[in-house]
Amino acid sequence: MERKISVSDLRKAVDAAYEAVKSEKDGEIDPCNFGAKAGEFGISVVLPDGTTINKGDTQVKSPMGKIAKIPLFSLLLEQNGVDNLVKKSGTCPCHKVPEKPQGLKFDPHFMRAFSAVEPTGDADSKWNLYINRVIDMMGSAPEMNDKLFEYLQKEAQESKLVDTLAADGYYLYDDASIAADLVEKAMSMTAGTEQLARMGATVLADGVNPETKAEVFDGRYSQNIIGMMAAKGPHKMNLPWLVKAGIPAKRSFGGAMLGILPGTLSIAAYAPELNPAGVSVKAAKAIMHVMRELDLSAFASARVKFVND
After folding, report:
1. What contacts 24+ positions apart, CB below 8 Å, involve 257-261?
2. CA-based end-to-end distance of the chain
3. In CA terms, which of 109, 185, 254, 302 is 20 to 30 Å from 143?
4. DSSP secondary structure of 229-281
């Protein structure tokens, strides 16, 4: 079964979500989100054909945080394939590894992922592969927040991050200092919601950037990227989020959130005020509002196609 929804109805749903949520005042700005201003709010939607809908502060750049894992997933899947990557992730029972160290301000799993990028021992090559992938998926370059990068470097040094990982026996595939530096850089990159939504649309369009028409990565891995997003989900709320919103998503401590609905749309929203789980209050509500307004869900039986009026 196939449902057809007009682009104008999608635009109305975005407008309605913006109006419904813009006055929300709950949440606190993460102190690491340097330069963020209370009240900033934007929503962007990109369809597989490149159709783009923007509302509000869509050009305001905020830290990508763990949204930065999405282009990293695409690299790792191409370099390793699905089965080998699952083993390297430490989630396969045939590949037992030490548990994630607790109490760190950095995500060890994020570090393990960067450490697995080839070539081993070559930080510059790893970073160039990664940042070029980000640019190709967005169709434009993110910007480094230098103040945030300096802060993260200082945090890693003061918490003796590398020494703690070694003491706990946490396995990495490359030098820990290289992995830590790459994670600090990736988390310090900033982007607007339009850039993020276009990055998601590249996944949606089987690895082809819908704006530039460039083939960025092997499209057969798009389903695996979305699957990994669904499995991990927004911090501390992946299961409730999927049940309530019906769209795989990742979030950033900077207030951005990116959702990808397979075969249908990519939606990004931003507002810096976060709930106790570190998820943007406005961004989460806005995405959920659009999904419910149009009766969309990754788990619905009907396939949805957007059509021009």
Report:
1. 257/67, 257/283, 257/284, 257/287, 258/67, 258/70, 258/196, 258/197, 258/199, 258/200, 259/200, 259/287, 260/200, 260/203, 260/204, 260/226, 260/229, 261/204, 261/291, 261/296, 261/298, 261/304
2. 21
3. 109
4. HHHH-STT-HHHHHHHH-S-EEE-TTSEEEEEETTTEEEEEE-SEE-TTS-BH
Domains annotated for the chain, with CATH where assigned, are 2-64+191-307 (3.40.710.10), 67-94+103-188 (3.40.710.10)
Inter-residue contact 206 to 262 (CB < 8 Å): no
Tokens 């570090």 -> residue:
111
Distance between CA atoms of residues 41 and 269, nearest Å: 7
Q: What is the model's pTM? A: 0.93
d(CA 68, CA 42): 19
Q: In the chain, which ranges are E strands?
A: 2-6, 28-29, 42-46, 52-56, 62-63, 143-144, 189-191, 249-251, 256-261, 265-270, 273-274, 303-307
Cα–Cα distance measured from residue 167 to residue 143, given in angstroms and rounded to the nearest whole number = 34
255-306 pLDDT per residue, tens: 999 999 999 999 999 999 999 989 999 999 999 999 999 999 999 888 888 9
- Give CA–CA dist 235/6, Å, rounded: 33
> Residue 236 is encoded by which pair of tokens?
């501390």
Burial 68-103 (b: 16+ CB within 10 A, else e): bbbbbbbbbbbebeeeebbebbbeeeeeeeeeeeee
Reported as a single tens digit per residue, the pLDDT across 118-129 is: 999 999 999 999
Q: Tell me which DSSP letter residue 101 carries.
A: P
Side chain identity at residue 252, one-letter code = S
